[in-house]
Amino acid sequence: MNQEEIILKIKTGGQSELAAVYKEFRDEFLHWITREYRCSADDGKDIYQMTILIFYDNIRQGKLQHLVSSVKTYLFGIGKNIARENLRKEKKFVSIGQEKWLWEHLTDEPSQHIDEGIFARAKLALEKLGQPCQRLIELFYYEKKSIPEITDALGYKNPETAKNQKCKCMARLRKLFEQETTSSSTIFNHESI
Amino acid sequence: MNQSEEDITLVERYFDEALSERERMNFAARLAVDESFKSLVENEKILINSIRHHGLREDLEFLKNIEKGLDDPKVIPMRSSRSWYYVAAASLAAILMIGLFFRPHSSAQKLFAENFQPYPNVFEPTVRGTSEPTKRSEAFQAYEQGDYSKAVMLFNQLLQEKEEAGILLLNGNANLMLGNVEEAKKNFITLNADFDELDIQSKWFLSLCYLKSGDMEHAKPILEELGNTEISYARKAKELLKEVK
Q1: Cα–chain center distance at B22
Q2: How far is A131 from chain B (nearest CA, A)?
Q3: pLDDT of amino acid B167
Q4: pLDDT bucket at A71, cuts 50 / 70 / 90
Q5: Nearest to B174 by CA among B162, B186, B163
Q6: CA distances for B237 relative to A19, B42, B244, angstroms
Q7: Which of A33, B85, B128, B227 would be A44's cystine partner, CB 3.0–4.6 Å?
Q8: Which segment of A42-56, A82-96, A156-170 scores lowest on mean pLDDT?
Q9: Is pLDDT of B240 > 80?
Q10: Where is pLDDT greater, at B45 or A15?
């Protein structure tokens, strides 16, 4: 499989493609990262999992459309970046904290402050949203599937129905988020009295 | 918080990348002055990031389950970590690449001087007084002590006996220090072609050789390749671009 084929497969595929890419470069990556940064095999796996997710997400979000170098070089570059950032912050190698890395990957600006309270409320709202809304908006915003693809995947009558449904789901999510925000500020106000 | 339906639709279309050029401009202008509108946009961004976070979390769990079914690869211990330099070199590649696009070719020599540092001997660090000196130990010691003429002479002899990645890299560096650019190029090209290891380092120093000899045409594609190896470079490049504009 050449570089362009891998990118296309990731863009159009699902978790089976994710598993295939994960397995293909895993051993070589773990050999390299554990030697280069003197970290344990478990820490190496944590970094590799983040590396694959970032690679995958960059392709889906359209940040990576074609590779000048090989997939291996690109993956090693991401892994190196994670290990280096971790070493810079911690002075010596400690476990990377995958959750923190997920949020750092999602924020665009290096200086952007992550308000954990707000995100916790957004997560609660998303949980309350339920199915099939949750799946629909995840296909649209995370997997970056087109409306026609979502129509097929979730069995909507036509793309227009899928698009309307997506708008309704987002409206419901906004409302739930607003409710979470209101209830949390009410609790805060009660506690501060 | 009561937002108009119109504004909500506008924000939704913005995140769906469905705005026209003119609409985007109006959107940006309003964002700069309208706090309530800005808050609406920020909330939408938080919600979309939460959706993406949820997706990433699920895929992470999926990878962890796959991992459970796989055997650990055998780990080969390494003598010394060279990560700091490895990383520094790749980072500089991105900065240097940007510099190349905005500076005249005549400053290539200056860029070379600003960015070239000989690679440290991390392959066989000299331990003095432990055993009888050999040609090999003398070569590494000469390199460490900055006696590059002696190092090149001894490394060349060692390379005639057997090609080794680490020696090729250090010999290339020693040749660069001596101004033997063509010899250095040969070392890095051989290293890149004949070995799987040290590929980023060989490319980095090869690009510096091209810079040193003013050959921008060959330096640029290598630096572009190195600059694309890390996702954070895109951000750095954008910041640099703002500064040079």
Answers
A1: 37
A2: 13
A3: 94
A4: confident
A5: B186
A6: 32, 25, 10
A7: A33
A8: A82-96
A9: no
A10: B45
Q: What is the C-alpha to C-alpha distance for residues A26 and A72, in angstroms, rounded to an integer?
A: 10
* Residue of B26, B203, B212 lying closest to B107 (CA atoms): B212
Please state, in angstroms and as integers, the Cα–Cα distance from residue B49 to each residue in A50, B56, B104, B216, following that order.
17, 10, 42, 41
Average pLDDT, chain B: 77
Pairwise CA distance, residues B211 & B188, whole Å: 14
Between these two residues, B107 and B196, which has the higher pLDDT value? B196
Q: Does A122 touch chain B (CB under 8 A)?
A: yes
DSSP B21-76: HHHHHHHHHHHHH-HHHHHHHHHHHHHHHHHHHHHHHHHHHHHHHHHHTSPPPPPP
- Say which residues have a Cβ less than 8 Å from residue A157's Cβ, sequence separation at least 6: A151
The shares of helix, strand and coil residues in chain A, as percent rounded to the nearest 5, are 75, 0, 25
Q: Assign 3-class secondary structure to B115-143.
A: HCCCCCCCCCCCCCCCCCCCHHHHHHHHH
Q: Which two tokens stand for residue B238?
A: 């954008």
SS3 B182: helix
**How much is the mean pLDDT over chain A?**
82
Q: What span, in angstroms and rounded, lies between the C-alpha atoms of B194 and B83? A: 22
Taking CB atoms within 8 Å and a gap of at least 24, the contacts of B103-107 are B105/B214, B105/B216
Residue A112 has what pLDDT?
Answer: 52
**Res B237: pLDDT:** 35
Instruction: Provide, as residue numbers in chain B, all residues whose Cβ is less than 8 Å from the Cβ of A17.
Output: none
Residue B77 has pLDDT above 50, yes or no: no
Partner B contacted by A54 (CB < 8 A):
yes
Contacts of B77 in chain A (CB under 8 A): 35
**Beta-carbon count within 10 A of B56 CB:** 23
How distant is the Cα of A78 from the closest Cα of chain B, in angstroms? 5
Residue with tokens 């905005």: B102
Query: Which chain B residue's Cα is nearest to A123?
Result: B50
CA distance B183 to B178: 10
Rounded distance between C-alpha atoms, residue A65 and residue A67, angstroms: 7
The answer to whether B155 and B174 are in contact (CB under 8 A) is yes
- Average confidence (pLDDT) over A113-120: 75
